[in-house]
Specification:
With 228 residues, this protein is α+β, with helices and mostly antiparallel strands. It has 5 helices and 17 strands. The chain has one domain: Fumarylacetoacetate hydrolase, domain 2 (Alpha-Beta Complex). It starts with a strand and ends with a strand.
């Protein structure tokens, strides 16, 4: 899958095209056991079984990655999750933003299947990991949904609440701390404010308070009918 990014660094922007052939979703990636348990209970409330271990690495079809501002989903029981997204190119790692959009009805049957059924929106901007690695924990992810015609804060939390990407990468690769080129990894999320629920639109942000900049992406869902 070809993705195109604007790499923002030192006040300048340069284009970068990458071809990713594998997508990994790191699930249950909280750093704090209490936070992990909160997310497990949050999902258990809608019928999702507990994970066998944490973190887990779900493999998802690479053609589910999209930088479009619209995705199509079946029925109304799916929702987004804001997460950081990392990939490597030319021996250097980059960070962007993604939504692990998931079919919640199917999630009660199989988590891996539910992740495979929905497109994974990815932002069009990225930063060099080296520019943010020193203050990674201070960065904040947040998401907004549309409810009753209003924009509502849905998720918000510091990256300190999640396992750092180098740890997740090492867990996936068996020790290597640089993600192999051709692989993109979605790196975990924070809890939903008010519980997991669907929305016709999803907007997300990665905010860097140290360098004073933000990566943003938004998309809408088009509902396809569920027929028997």
């Amino acid at each position: 899958m070809e993705l195109n990014f604007a790499i923002e660094s030192s006040g300048a922007s340069q284009p970068l095209t990458v071809n990713l052939t594998e997508l990994v979703v790191a699930g249950w990636a909280g750093r704090d056991q209490a936070a992990i348990e909160h997310h497990i209970e949050e999902l258990a409330a809608i019928g999702v079984p507990r994970p066998s271990s944490v973190p887990l690495y779900y493999r998802v079809a690479e053609n589910l990655m999209t930088q479009a501002d619209r995705i199509q989903v079946v029925a109304t029981e799916s929702s987004g999750e804001v997460e950081t997204f990392v990939f490597s190119a030319g021996g250097e790692m980059y960070v962007s933003l993604a939504s692990d959009h998931t079919d919640r009805k199917l999630e009660t049957i199989g988590v891996a299947l539910s992740k495979q059924i929905c497109a994974k929106p990815i932002a069009r901007n990225a930063w060099r990991f080296a520019d943010v690695s020193g203050h990674w924990d201070e960065m904040i992810i947040r998401a907004f949904i549309e409810e009753g015609g209003a924009r509502v804060l849905y998720q918000e939390g510091p990256l300190a609440a999640l396992r750092p990407p180098l740890e997740l990468i090492a867990g996936f690769t068996g020790g290597a701390r640089l993600l192999p080129e051709g692989i993109g990894m979605i790196c975990g999320t924070v809890g939903a404010i008010g519980g997991i629920r669907p929305s016709p639109s999803f907007s997300m942000e990665l905010f860097d308070p140290v360098l004073g900049r933000t990566i943003r992406h938004a998309y809408r869902t088009e509902i396809l009918p569920e027929v028997a």
